[in-house]
Every structure is written in structure tokens, then in C-alpha cells.
Automatic annotation (TrEMBL), chain A:
Transmembrane stretches, start-end: 60-81, 88-107, 113-132, 144-164, 184-202, 232-258, 301-319
Subcellular location: Cell membrane
Gene3D superfamilies named among the record's database cross-references: ABC transporter involved in vitamin B12 uptake, BtuC
PANTHER family linked: ABC TRANSPORTER PERMEASE PROTEIN MJ0876-RELATED (PTHR30472:SF25), FERRIC ENTEROBACTIN TRANSPORT SYSTEM PERMEASE PROTEIN (PTHR30472)
Keyword Transport: yes
UniProt source species: Marinospirillum celere
Organism domain of life: Bacteria
Protein name: Iron complex transport system permease protein
From TrEMBL, chain B:
Organism: Marinospirillum celere
Top-level taxonomy: Bacteria, Pseudomonadati, Pseudomonadota, Gammaproteobacteria, Oceanospirillales
Function according to Swiss-Prot or TrEMBL: Part of the ABC transporter complex HmuTUV involved in hemin import. Responsible for energy coupling to the transport system.
SMART domains registered for this protein in UniProt: AAA
Domain ABC transporter: residue ranges: 7-242
Superkingdom of the source species: Bacteria
Keyword entries, A-Z: ATP-binding, Nucleotide-binding, Translocase, Transport
Protein's name according to its UniProt entry: Iron complex transport system ATP-binding protein
A molecular function GO annotation: ATP hydrolysis activity
InterPro entries: AAA+_ATPase, ABC_transporter-like_ATP-bd, ABC_transporter-like_CS, P-loop_NTPase
Amino acid sequence: MVSGFYRMLAWLLPLACLSLALGLLVGSVTISPAAAWAVFKGQGDPLHHTLMLELRLPRVLAAFAVGGLLAIAGALMQLLLRNPLADPYVLGLSGGAAVGALLAMLAGVGTTWVSGSAFLGALASTLLVFGLARISGNWNPLRLLLTGIVVASGWGAVISFMLAVSPSRELPGMLYWLMGDLSYAQGFALPWATLLLVLLILQPLGRSLNVLARGSQQAASLGMAVVRAEGLIYLLAALMTAIAVTVAGSIGFIGLLVPHALRLLFGYDQRKLLPACALAGGSLLVLADTLARSLLAPQQLPVGVITALLGVPAFLWLLSRRPG
Amino acid sequence: MKTSPRMELDQLVIKIPGRKAGNPLSLQVFPGQTWGILGPNGSGKTTLLLTLAGLKKPQQGQIHLAGQALESWSARERACQLALVFQQQEDSFPASVLETTLTSRHPHLKAWQRETPEDSLLAQQALERMDLAAMEERCITTLSGGERQRLALACLLTQQTPLWLLDEPTNHLDLHHQISALELINEKVKAGGSAIMALHDLNLASRFCSHLLLLYPDGQACWGPKDQMLELPALERLYQQPLIATSISGQKVFIPQTSTG
């Protein structure tokens, strides 16, 4: 196995279990481990049963998968743009999703439609950026990045416009969605299936991803089909981000911070990094969501507020210790 | 038995934007030869090397690698035959020195295969050879220019190909490492390898190359064994620079003339 793989697992698997347990037990009503054990055995308080298994479990599972997806998508975007400070939204995907979601909310349709519309918006934005970046022949990371930034600011303008003309009773829901909020999360099957599928596809390709990290020219001289590999990475990252955004809105900083911190802790080998992203990203989002549910309970905060409040200082700290 | 050329250029014209097509190049590089490419800035040295490596299409003509048309090689098989050291190391993504070196085993492994202990050993030996053994775990973004260049040479060693293409291999290197890099190339060629490298230092070219290719800025070119090519008027015309030629212990030495004498 890749050196250090088990050390990574030894750290991150317990973290994942701990975060899932906390997510189930802590909230507006805190459940003791003993009471939780009783629920699992089929005895226990019916209220606890409802809280843990019907309300918290789906949400915790959705949070874990979304966190994992965002962290892996971030790691892939950083690799694709060869920039350790890129994040899954850098190419404007969250803006497209937000415009889709807000349109659906303005139309006053149900949450399923909001999710579907967000997904379509994300895909449209992905194809738009990809198409624009390739339109004049060769694409390269810089052109892709610039195209993404311009398209993202375009979406930003559209979002501001929509917020400005929306009736005020719609605004809180919209703002929560924009900040990233797991209380909308419906179903964890799709994000989990995507997460596992992506790990399954990428794990055997990990060595090729390491080659790609050396730059497109170098990778080509080592016999890689660079354009094809970059296209695959872009589409996978976009798909993962689109699904994450669809489930939970645009939650910031997970996709930026988690891969960055994991590289410092466990090294740069993508075969180690991507599974580590799944575990750590998932754990972090579950913990953040637990905080969001319990800090001002019974009121719930959008989880994006928590990730940003934790993420900004952590990111500045990482940035300040970067050499050079 | 006559050895066959490792690389053959047949009426090759490279693509240089904004210049009319230059002289077609027709030459053969055999095992045991070190070819130096000399020429002023912008004369096409890098473009030629990229073309020979299969990363750029030629404007006209053919390149044969080990007797087979270059474009008929799959990228992966080609990377088992020739390795290229770029003039500039790309602004790469953070990775450790050892991990970076190991990626050079890529063409020898199947897409899903993991590196074997032998691959790691090759990488470690190459790092040792380039005086980088103590830096295995360092992140490449923290290396100095010269260390990055030595890492590129270690990667070249690890790739284990019979033909080496090098774009200014002495770039950023201190005097000692310049010589040890060129001695490394010499050793490789003596063991039956071939090297084609762009160089700016006439004296290093005169000591370490067996053949030279002179690329003039207007697209003219001439080539041949080193001794026929190192002629003062040709070199002065090449660089548009008056030179003084002398000889130290039988070795030709060229010194640029300056306006202050």
C-alpha cells in the first residue's frame, strides 16, 4: 500500500466515527450514550428514537457525504488548476446553482424542484465555463481559472439582482440557501453513491494524478494523455460539487481547507489524499452542522456560517505559515 | 554489425512563429553520441527539442525514433524511449522530492499499478546521484532553482530511457553541479545512451559534446562532428559576437571579446 496510508486511516477513521456519534447525540436535545444504546437495542425513549434515527441520522449522513464530496472536489480543482488555494466553487459552479435554486424559490415550487433547479444551474455553469475556456483552441489552467472567475462574478450580479427584486418573505430562505444549509438536505443516497463511485474511479488513477501534479508539459512528456485526464478531473469535480450544492447549498471553506490541511499532515500522494479528504471533509461538516444545530438551539444556523467562521482564521493561519 | 540510429531527422523543419521556414535538418543521432544544439536566443533550440520529444508538431519532415516514425509511438512507449528535461521547471503543485522523482516511473507502469520497491530504489539512487538524498521529504516548492534543476535530472535518471533530450541542463546550477551534470550525461552516453542538449556555454559544448548543431536566427543551420563545427568565424556569426579562441592543454577555449578589451 502507499506509504503512510494506514497512518492516515488510523487518524481519520476514529475522527469520522466520533463526529458521526456526536452528530447523532448532540443537538437541541442532548442524548446520553446510554440512552442512545437503548434506542439501538430497540428499547429506549420513543422521542430519542425519532430524534436520532428519523431526524438526525439522515441529516448527519447527508452532511458527511456532502463534506466528503466538497473536500475531494476541492482537492481535484487544486490539482487541475495547479493552485493549492483553489476551491470547488472557484469556477463559478456555486453561482450557477444558486441562480437555479433562487429561481425555483421565486417560482414558489417545492424543495425537490429547488434542488433539481440548483443541479441544472450548476451543470449549465460547468458547461459554460468549460466551453468558454476551450473556445479558442488550447485551454490551460490559467485560462480556465480566469473564465471561471468572470463567470462567477456574472452569477454574483444575477444573484444580487434576484435578491433585490424578491418579495421580502422569500429572503430568509434564500439567504439560508446561499450560506449553505443542511436543513433542506433531502436524502443521503445520492451524495453517498457519488462519493463512493468517485473514490472507486479515482483510487486506481491516483498515480496518474500525481504525474499530472507535475504540470501538463511534464505529464505529457511522461506519456500521459493530459487533455483527457484534465477533462475527466474537471467533470468529476464539477459533478461532485453540483451534487453537494444541490443537497446543501454552497457551503464554503470545506473544499478549500480540508485538502490543504491534509497535504500538510499526510503528504501529497493523491492515493492517500483523496480518501483522506472524504473522511476529514465528512467529519468536519458533520461537526460544523452539529454546532449549527446546537449553538443557538432551538434556532438553527446555516452551517455555512459555521464553516466560514472556523474556516477564515484557519485559512489565514495556513496562509501565514506558507513559506515564501 | 552496423548500429542503427537512435533518432533520425529527415528534412525536418520546425515551426517558429513569425519566421520563414528554416533549413531542413537531416541528421542521425547514434548510440554513444552527444549532440549539442548551439544558437542565440530565439533561434529555435527549445522548439526543436520539444518537436523531437513529440510535444510539438513539425512544420515539415519526419522524425524517426529507434527506426519508427515518432508519431506512430504511443505516448507511453515514447516516454520509455526518450526523456526530456525542460528549460524551466513548471510552477508545480506541492509534492515531496521523492514523490516527484517516483512519478518518472509512470511510463514503465500500467495506469492502475503501484510503484514497486525497485521503482523506489531507482528514485532514491537517482536522488543520491544528484546530491538530493537528504531532501527526499522536502516539498519541491521550497527548493532553490539549482535544486529544482538537479531534481529534474534525478527524474531523468529515474525515467531510464536510452535517449535524453535536455534543454540547457546546466541552468541554475553552480559550477560543481554543472560539471557533474555533464559528466552524468557523458557516462550515460559512454554506456550506449544518446543525448541531445541545448547549451549556451561554448566551452562546455566543446568539452562534452561529440557533435554540434548550429541554429542561426534566420533559420539557417549546419551540423557535424564537434571539431568541424567549432570554427571561430562560424561561431562569431552565430552569436553576432566577436570571440577570442585559444587553447589550454590541448582543449579549445572561446572567450567573448568585450568593447573594453
